[in-house]
Amino acid sequence: MRTHLGPDASPSAHAPTPPAVAPPPHWTFPVPATGTRLANGMDVAWYRLPGQHVVAATLVLDLPLSREPRHLEGVATLTARTLDEGTQHHPGEEYGERLEEVGAALGVHIGLGGQQVMLDVPVTRFAEALPLLAEAVRRPLLDRADVDRHRALRLAEIEQLEANSAQSANRWLRSRLWDAGSRASRMNGGEPETVAAVTAADVAAWHATQVRPAGSTLLLAGDLPEDPLPLVEELFGDWGGAAPGEPLPPPVPAGPGVLLVDRPGAVQADIRLAGPGVDRRHPRWADLLVATNAVGGSFLSRLNRVLREERGWTYGVHLGLSPYRDGGSWAVSGSFRTEVVGATLTETRALLDLGAAPLTEEETTAAVQQLGGTLPLRSATAEGVVDQVASHLLAGLPADHADRLLADLRQVTATSATEAYAELVDLSRSTLVVVGDAAVLEPALAGAGFEVTDRR
């Protein structure tokens, strides 16, 4: 029934009192219900998550890309991408059909520090799906035709990347930010000349010598009705292999410089301004995380507010951190109209310097609330939990890293964030990569104080 209020009536007189907003409940990262190490060196951790009816299983392999032979870089990626093309028990398309029958999805992720093989499946079909994960990892066919196809796909992928200005800028930044001897200076999936050299025999040899249980961890999360460890032991207990190889060496910075990549006639330029940074084990990581979020890590950060909202020079600009197991980097990235690149770089450099304009308590509080609020959200599903734990494992972080980080974030102040930023974001060591119309951009860069040291 709709009630009409006359012109003299006051709706506030009958409006209910709004409920009080309670503070968010105390949150801690899930603790595994059980965990063990098999005799072959593989760790297992099971997170019992009531209500999560899709089980996430991820096998984290201690397989840094620095172990690839230099002339065969990309072999790890081709191996991983061929795992689901058929196994000894389910050859060819039969393997994919079996995954579909049980409602499972298999995926892989290749990072600089290691590899993940991921499985999602309804809890009711978990016992049927986990053997398929074990098959893909332990007994893949790695057929020559499949390897050849994935090699061709990877080469085509690289061509597409080169055609994309933003992706090309990211690739050139890696090659200029890190010393050529560091694996971090080259694409995770390999460069064209090394990918082209990989054969099916190389893939088989890589799998036989590098994909091993020692140093690996199987993560399981979901509302499983009973302890899955007996099934895990049955599927992986007799998996053998040598001990892990050498750990991933930290990347070595190449030193500052300015690279201009020519795209004649381009109406916009992709800018990457970056420098060496720290990893998540650094004692001031929380302070740095808050500072970079306030400067350029959120929509209302200084960089985006000025360059996008006030100037209208870009659809968006971002300052982010890329931590590795040891060391890392910071980078400003964005696409800008060609005619404003010089002014953009001048203003960006000023905004990145907190000497004249330290962070305010308001900015710091907003950043802490955003970062602290997203931690629980990222762990709200079974997949989110295993993703977080896998990331921590590959970074050499403790199991309670999320809880420690949340506690550290609550201690950050405007002063501590500004000091950490000033200490760890060194503009004098920065590398600039600009992809666009060189004829127009080179004078603009010089006018902004950036002398080009390399051209492509």
UniProtKB/TrEMBL annotation:
Which SUPFAM superfamilies does its entry note?
LuxS/MPP-like metallohydrolase
Any Pfam family hit? Peptidase_M16_C
Which molecular function terms from Gene Ontology are attached?
Answer: metal ion binding
Enumerate composition-biased segments (Pro residues).
16-26
Origin: domain of life: Bacteria
Instruction: Give start and end of each Peptidase M16 C-terminal domain.
Output: 198-371
PANTHER family, sorted: METALLOPROTEASE (PTHR11851), PROCESSING PROTEASE (PTHR11851:SF224)
| Name of the protein | Predicted Zn-dependent peptidase
Source species, please?
Auraticoccus monumenti
